[in-house]
Write a structure and sequence with these properties.
Number of strands of chain B: 0
Largest interface: A-B, 31 and 22 residues
Structural class of chain A: alpha/beta
Order of helices and strands of chain B: HHHHHHHHHH
Helix content of chain A: 25-40%
Pfam families (chain B): BPD_transp_1
Order of helices and strands of chain A: EEEHEEEHHHHEHEHEEHHH
Number of helices of chain B: 10
Largest sheet of chain A: 6 strands, mixed
Keywords (chain B): Cell membrane, Membrane, Transmembrane, Transmembrane helix, Transport
Subcellular location (chain B): Cell membrane
Strand content of chain A: 15-25%
Oligomer: heterodimer
InterPro entries (chain B): MetI-like, MetI-like_sf
Helix content of chain B: over 70%
Membrane topology (chain B): Multi-pass membrane protein
Radius of gyration of chain A: 19 Å
Chain lengths: ~270, ~250
């Protein structure tokens, strides 16, 4: 097993023809006090795509995401969302953070957490309530709207955060290691929930994770990052058929090949082979 | 169950023991300054279990209440602003520490010059003494907003005011209440002192009248009453604090 040939190459992903880019990042650079963190990141995410961004822990994924979201100024390069250069958080962007308990407001009920961003949109109260209820329903929390977030389990809290992002109806949804703090069983459920929501709503998702299996299982494409200073190591297409299945998809030979490729791309070849 | 009963019984028993000790130790006292407890209780009954209670206590409590409300409102407004705008914080921190370090009663003489000797002065002095603990607690509270929460609010389109209303202020509430809890005893001290200086009613006035005319049983009865009011107010503030913690505090899963 240790002597197997290098994993088969995976075709570098070409830009899907005729599709509109939602997110365009070009030469993004960011450092803290002369210490470079992001070293010229360029990537595109197209309308309706599910792109997994995978990189080793501590490689600056969160810094990158905060730059993309307009939360953190960067030194050079451009970030465009929907064609407009990002200077502050764009109105067409939603985020699900890893730390659900801190991203939710403990002093508001679940329903009010989901409704809060809608208060400041140009929609009627009735419309806002309908959007919030629909989003809660779609993540399976229709009956828990009156509860406070801390009365729910971790997985359910993250569902609330997902519902909040859905109700906001973003063009692009960024997810920052959203399932890194939940147990394995819950993680599997949440992955499948995201796939269902994504296919139902024709959303565009950029999903940051350090979990290679998760990246492959969810994504249309995988963007593999390098260690700090972070750049893009490789971009590959995940040519696994949809709908995907936690057991059947992960049991395919192709899944194993892809996993080996991503492992290699991330510089984990030794571990992957051994 | 037994434990809970014990938790209630113990303070009652120790209080009873303390009172009994005071009673027996002072029973045969002929000292002008330390009259027997029985005399003090008799004075207490005459002074405070009568209509005089409202005539004397209400003005004092009114001043404390209004002064605290004013000081708290100002402290919250200025403190959360300073805490929310980090850039200005380092500039004003030394001045805040300086102001806090001043003994609150120190402001009474200059305040008399500016505001006269009436209620405005007394309420003003109480407000000025309550301001600093609340203000500094509010700065702390507004500063302790989780960075992720601020990111979330900005991404989801909450403007400055909305972030203040929904994120900064609720985060600061338990801290602010801690400030209120610290300010309350100070406000009582300042109330008594300001009434002692110049007043025609209130507990401080009563204390100054009785002590200067050697009605010491009456004076002691006012001190006992102040203690009782202090305990009651502090417990009320602490209880409200626990409620606010439940409403605005952080909870982790489980």
């Amino acid at each position: 097993m240790a002597e197997t040939a290098p994993p088969p190459a995976v075709a570098p992903a070409a830009a899907p023809a005729g599709r509109t880019p939602i997110l365009e990042v070009d030469g993004l650079r960011k450092g803290y006090g002369g210490d470079p963190v992001l070293d010229g990141i360029s990537l595109q995410v197209f309308e309706g795509e599910f792109v997994s961004v995978v990189g080793p822990s501590g490689c600056g994924k969160t810094t990158m995401l905060r730059c993309l979201a307009g939360l953190l100024p960067f030194e050079s390069g451009t970030v465009r969302i929907d064609g407009a250069a990002v200077t502050g958080p764009p109105a067409t962007l939603g985020i699900v953070f890893q730390d659900y308990s801190r991203s939710l407001l403990p002093w508001l009920s679940v329903r009010d957490n989901v409704r809060l961003p809608l208060r400041y949109q140009a929609i009627s109260k009735k419309q806002a309530a309908a959007q919030a209820d629909e989003a809660l329903e779609s993540v399976g929390l229709a009956a828990d709207g009156h509860k406070r977030p801390w009365q729910l389990s971790g997985g359910m809290q993250q569902r609330v955060a997902i519902a909040r992002a859905l109700a906001y109806r973003p063009r692009l949804l960024l997810m920052d290691e959203p399932f890194a703090s939940v147990d394995a069983q819950t993680r599997v459920e949440l992955e499948d929930l995201m796939l269902r929501l994504w296919s139902e709503r024709a959303m565009t998702i950029a999903f940051v994770t350090h979990d290679i299996d998760e990246a492959i299982y969810l994504g249309d494409r995988i963007v593999a990052l390098t260690r700090r200073p972070t750049g893009i190591r490789e971009t590959m297409t995940v040519d696994l058929p949809r709908p995907r299945d936690q057991i059947a998809t992960k049991a395919t030979e192709r899944f194993a090949e892809l996993r080996a490729s991503v492992f290699t791309a991330l510089g984990h070849h030794e571990e992957a082979a051994g | 169950m037994n434990r809970r009963l014990w938790a209630i019984a113990l303070p009652v028993l120790t209080t009873a023991a303390a009172v009994a000790l005071w009673w027996t130790a002072s029973a045969s006292s002929t000292s002008l300054y330390f009259p027997p407890l029985s005399d003090i209780l008799e004075a207490f009954r005459a002074n405070w279990l009568s209509r005089q209670l409202t005539d004397i206590v209400v003005p004092s409590l009114w001043r404390v209440g209004l002064g605290m409300a004013l000081g708290t409102a100002l402290g919250v407004a200025i403190g959360t602003l300073i805490g929310a705008i980090r850039r200005i914080e380092s500039y004003v921190q030394p001045q805040l520490e300086f102001m806090r370090a001043l003994p609150p009663i120190l402001v009474i003489p200059p305040m008399i010059l500016v505001l006269g000797t009436g209620d405005t002065m007394k309420i003003g002095v109480i407000a000025a003494s309550a301001l600093w603990p609340v203000l500094l607690a509010a700065v702390d509270g507004a500063r302790s907003v989780e960075p992720v929460r601020d990111d979330m609010a900005r991404v989801f389109g909450l403007g400055r005011w909305a972030r203040f209303r929904w994120v900064v202020l609720p985060t600061a509430v338990p801290h602010i209440w801690g400030g209120v809890q610290a300010a309350m005893p100070i406000a009582f001290v300042v109330m008594i002192a300001s009434e002692y200086y110049s007043s025609t009613n209130g507990l401080g006035y009563f204390l100054s009248q009785t002590s200067t005319s050697f009605r010491l049983a009456d004076m002691w009865s006012a001190i006992v009453l102040l203690g009782v009011i202090g305990v009651a107010v502090n417990s009320l503030v602490a209880y409200a604090g626990r409620r606010l913690d439940r409403r605005f505090g952080e909870y982790t899963d489980g």
